[in-house]
Amino acid sequence: MVSDFFISIEIDFVFLLSNQLSMKINHLQIEIDGIDKEILRDLMDDARKPILQIANKIGISGAAIHQRLRKLEQARVISGSKFIVDTKVLGYSTMAFIGIYLEKASSNPEVVKELKKIPEVLECHYTTGNWSILIKLICRDNEHLMQLLNKKIQPIDGVSRTETYISLEQQIERQIQL
C-alpha cells in the first residue's frame, strides 16, 4: 500500500535581517530579495507547485524562476528536496530522543560512525550540556527501542550511559518562516 508522501525544501542557516533575508556561507554574503522569498515560500508550502504557476503569480517568467532557484541552490540556501515518509503507516510508532554520555569527548567520531550504521537513528547532534550526543530515532514499539538500546547503542565503545525520552506526540513541525 502506498501512503501519502510529503515533500519539503530544506533551508539551512537562514537569518532574517529587517526586510531583507541574508545568509552567510563560507564568509560570503548572499542577498535574497522579495521575489526569492516569495518563490521559497511557495515551494516550502508545496514543493510540487508548478514553476509556471509561481511565475504567473509573481509576474516573472518561468526561466527567471529557474535561474533564481539555481542561484539559491548554488548558494546552498536550498539544500535539497525530499519525500517524507509517514513512518506510522509503515509500522514505526515510537519516536525517542536519547542523550548519550561518552566516556571521553575524543571518542565522539567513533561513536557517531557506529550510530550511522543503525538505520533507526534519524538524527545525531553533538551537544553542550550533560550529554555529548543527542540522537533521534524511530522504532516499531517500546520493545524495539529496548533492543536498540541494549544491543546496538549502549554496547558502542566510548558510550558510558544513555538517557531516553519517548515522544508521546509531536506538537510542532515547521521550517523557518520567510
Question: Explain this structure to me?
Answer:
This protein is α+β, with helices and mostly antiparallel strands. The protein has 5 helices and 9 strands. The protein has helices spanning 34-45, 51-58, 62-74, 108-115, 142-153; strands spanning 5-11, 15-17, 20-25, 28-32, 78-85, 94-102, 121-126, 133-139, 159-167. The strands form 3 sheets. Strands 7-8-6-9 form a 4-stranded antiparallel sheet. Strands 2-3-4 form a 3-stranded antiparallel sheet. A hairpin with a 2-residue loop joins strand 3 (20-25) and strand 4 (28-32). Helix 2 packs across helix 3 (62-74).
Short description:
This protein is of the alpha+beta class and 178 residues long. The protein is built from five helices and nine strands.
Which stretches are low in confidence, meaning pLDDT under 50 for 5 or more residues running? 1-27
Number of helices: 5
Structural class: alpha+beta
Largest sheet: 4 strands, antiparallel
Termini distance?
36 Å
Tell me the helix content: 25-40%
- Tell the overall outline: elongated
Count of distinct strands: 9
The neighbouring-strand order within the major sheet is: 7-8-6-9
Radius of gyration: 20 Å
Mean pLDDT: 85
Indicate the proportion of strand residues.
Answer: 25-35%
Order of helices and strands: EEEEHHHEEHEEHE
